[in-house]
Amino acid sequence: MLTSFKIFADLVDRASFSRAAEENHLTRSAVSQRIKHLEEMLCCRLVSRSRAGATPTKAGEALYRACRDVLFRYEELLRELDELGQKVAGRLRLGAVTSVGLHELSPHVKRCLERYPAVDVALQYLTSQEIYRRVTERDLDLGIVAFPSPNATVVTMPLHRDELVVIVPPGHRLASSRGAIAPARLRGELFVAFDPELPTGHFIEQRLRHVDVRMQVVHHFDNVETIKRAVEIGAGVAIVPWGTADQEVGAGTLARVRLKGGDWTRPIAVIHRKDRPPGPVARAFISVLGESASTN
Fold first, then answer.
1. Which of 3, 6, 45, 71 is the most exposed place for a label (fewest CB within 10 A)?
2. Cα atoms found within 13 Å of the Cα of residue 89, Cβ hemisphere only
3. Alpha-carbon distances of 268 from 8, 148, 157, rounded to whole Å
């Protein structure tokens, strides 16, 4: 029954039989059969099917709330049993903003898996807004975000700060700069920028405005990989976290220039639900992150 409850909850969350099937490693037909069985058992229709997707009926919404509660309590029971046995094993549902997940987390995940072979880390790359939502809704055990924001339902644990730097093509006038440059030297440049709705994009725009540098943005993107590709072909300059450009700087396709004058860093933090203390697996991963932060 727990499996059927999880499948139903995933179906409501994703509004798609196909996505619910993928999440549970089943066929679409198998998911449909599970839902049909629940409807027959409860003698009511739970889901409305349409081309737009699957949406819960009133009865489905009531069952969804109950399913989430039952699944949450079951997970808490497993955590308590693990605590009693002092066993570090199980699945960690982890969400991270793309720039951190792609460029910083791999060695930490590897270290965690080496130390705790029975741990399974399910990592998803998401926006900060989506991470907060999914942590709050108990779909993620931990989230890693940039520029953590006040939230009454989560606990925020600072990790470290990322330095923000300018990236330019190798032949650019700033590529040969020795030492950090003043932001004023960016006046007149075309920018490839993070979407201003993203915390990092908003911070960069505000910092430059504070030092009287107006961004002439030719492209906005929501991920650092696309930003780097645009800078490589000469579309403009960009400001990105230091570590995200390591590969390109090493290959000679981008140059990296530090900024001086003020704080050009962004805070990175781990979040979890306030009413859901991290279990053994989550605590083990946080410990690994903390070890790395203390050596930086």
1. 3
2. 9
3. 34, 7, 9
Residue with tokens 């975000």: 145
CB 146 within 8 A of CB 268: yes
Distance (Å) of CA 139 to CA 32, 136, 152, 280: 22, 8, 17, 17
Are the CB atoms for 287 and 142 separated by under 8 Å? no
| Residue 277 token pair | 């203390």
Question: Which residue intervals of the chain bear CATH 1.10.10.10?
Answer: 1-86
Output the six-digit token pair for 196: 């201003």
CATH class of 161-266: alpha beta
Instruction: Calculate mean pLDDT across residues 185-208.
Output: 95
How many residues in total does the chain contain?
296
Q: What angle do CA 232, 243, 132 make, to 5 degrees?
A: 105
Compute the distance between CA of residue 68 and CA of residue 72 in angstroms, rounded to an integer.
Answer: 6
Query: Residue written as tokens 């780097």?
Result: 228
Kindly report, residue by residue over 120-147, the tens digit of the pLDDT. 999 999 999 999 999 998 889 999 999 9
What pTM value is reported for the model? 0.70
Third-level CATH fold of 1-86: Arc Repressor Mutant, subunit A (1.10.10)
Contact 133, 204 (CB under 8 A): no
Are the beta carbons of 160 and 277 closer than 8 angstroms? no
Q: In the structure encoding, which two tokens stand for residue 175, read together?
A: 């590529």
Average pLDDT value for the chain? 90
Burial class (CB within 10 angstroms; exposed 0-12, middle 13-18, buried 19+) of 209 = exposed
> Can you say how many angstroms the Cα of residue 199 is from the centroid of all Cα atoms in its chain?
13
pLDDT at 281: 87
